[in-house]
Amino acid sequence: MFRTWILSIQGKDWKQSSEYAISVKLSKYGDWPQLIVGGLLAALIARQLRNPVWTRILVTAVISAALAGVLATACRSITGRTRPDADSAIAPGWYGPYHNGQCLIGVHSYNSFPSGHTATAVGLAAVILFTRPLWGVPCMLVALSIVASRLYLGKHHLSDVVTALFLGLAVGWLVSRRAAPDSFRSRN
Question: What is the pTM for the complete model shown?
Fold first, then answer.
């Protein structure tokens, strides 16, 4: 039902639309390598500015993003869920890591659940949200725009991104509590 709604929004010329172009860019720059590098650059800038609180928050956010992304990828590799945009010759479903004698680990069409983009982006933004809510809300809005782009482009089912969203929030909460507990107390 959700996928049908997305297809109705797209229309027949959706690949020529500005929404499509923006979604492609959000998906490209919202992937884990770019998010990790961006977070590390921000941490280096905070360090250069001699701001130990923000340096710690940003390093913690990068750790959270990496952990959430790794967990999502590990899970995605064994569930074998087909992507909404998979070849029409592939019946939608959950195939596990092997199907008909073929290893599906790393096969894009069978690696939908949960969304790695979502887990990584939300994992990064969650640490900032939990430690500095005023800065975290815009960061989470950026993360949610990455989530929306994955749905709009047909790369994930709604349950893929919802599960990954909760995974990113949980990892962000746990990592920020463990790695940056002092950041919860002082709100610089």
Answer: 0.90
